[in-house]
Amino acid sequence: MDIAKLIQKINTQDPEDRYNIIEETDDFIIVNKKYGIAVQATDKGQLDLEKTLQKKYKKPIYVINRIDQPVSGLVIFGKTKEFTEAFTEKFKDRSVHKTYLTLVAGTPERERTMLTHFIKKLHNRAMTSDEPVDQKFKESKLAYTLLQSFDNYHLLRIELFTGRFHQIRAQLATVDLPIKGDLKYASKRPNLDRSICLLSYKLAFEHPFTKEMHAYTAPFPDNDVLWTLIDKSLLDG
C-alpha cells in the first residue's frame, strides 16, 4: 500500500476503530486512544473522541486530560461535572500519576535523568529555553529512565512533573533525543501512518470521593515492530 492510500485509509477509518474503553464507572471512562484521532479538536467539523463519546452515551462527556493526535494511550473522561471538577484539582496538585513510554533516537543517559526547561506555546508547536525569556515561558520538568536499547532506537520511561503543551516531545528533542516519527520535533523520518512512538502508558490515582485507588495500563500500539520487541519485565519500577 502506498503512502497516499494509507493516509486516505486512516482519515476515513471509523472512529470506533480508533479507541477502546478500558474501564467505565458511574464517574469516569478510561479510554485507550489510538493514534490519528484528537481527544478534543479545535476544528468544530473534525471528529474527535469527545464528540464520539457524547454520541455514544447521548449525554455530556467531559474532557479531563489530553494527549496529542499522533500519540496513543490512556485518556480519562468525566461522566459528571462534579467528578470532572474534583479530578481536575487532583491533576493540578500533581497527585495523579502518569507514566509514558517512548522510542527515541540519539544517545540517552544510562542513569535516571531529570530535564528542566522553560516552554512557550507557539500556535501548533512548543519553543524551549534554558531560561525564562519572558512570562510566557513556563517551567517544565520531566525525568526519563533508559529501559532498553535497539539498533537505532531506545525505550524510555517518562515521568512528568509538569503538564505543558508538547512537553515530552519538545524537551526530548532539545537534548537530541527525538521521538521516532516526530518530524515536528527533529525526527529524521516519519512513521508511514503519521503516528509518533509515544505512549500514554500508565494512569494511577485516588478517586476524589471514594478514596479508592485506581491504576490502568495501556496495551502497546500495533503499528511498529519495535513495540513487539520490548521486554515487559523492564517496565515495573
Q: Which features would summarize this protein structure in a list?
A:
237 residues, alpha+beta, Pseudouridine synthase, eleven-stranded mixed beta sheet, 5 helices, 32% strand, globular
In short:
The protein has 237 residues and is α+β, with helices and mostly antiparallel strands.
Topology:
Elements: H1 3-11, E1 19-24, E2 28-33, H2 49-57, E3 62-63, E4 72-78, H3 81-92, E5 97-104, E6 113-122, E7 125-129, E8 138-149, E9 154-160, H4 167-174, E10 198-206, E11 213-217, H5 225-228
Parallel strand pairs: 4-10
Antiparallel strand pairs: 1-2, 2-4, 3-4, 5-9, 5-10, 6-7, 6-8, 8-9, 10-11
What does this structure look like?
- The structure is a single chain.
- The protein has 237 residues and is of the alpha+beta class.
- The chain has one domain: Pseudouridine synthase (2-Layer Sandwich).
- It has 5 helices and 11 strands.
- It has helices at residues 3-11, 49-57, 81-92, 167-174, 225-228; strands spanning 19-24, 28-33, 62-63, 72-78, 97-104, 113-122, 125-129, 138-149, 154-160, 198-206, 213-217.
- Strands 1, 2, 3, 4, 5, 6, 7, 8, 9, 10 and 11 form an 11-stranded mixed sheet that branches.
- It starts with a helix and ends in a 9-residue tail after the last helix.
CATH C-level name: Alpha Beta
Shape, principal axes of CA atoms: globular
CATH topology: Pseudouridine synthase
CATH H-level superfamily title: Pseudouridine synthase
Structural class: alpha+beta
- Low-pLDDT residue spans: none
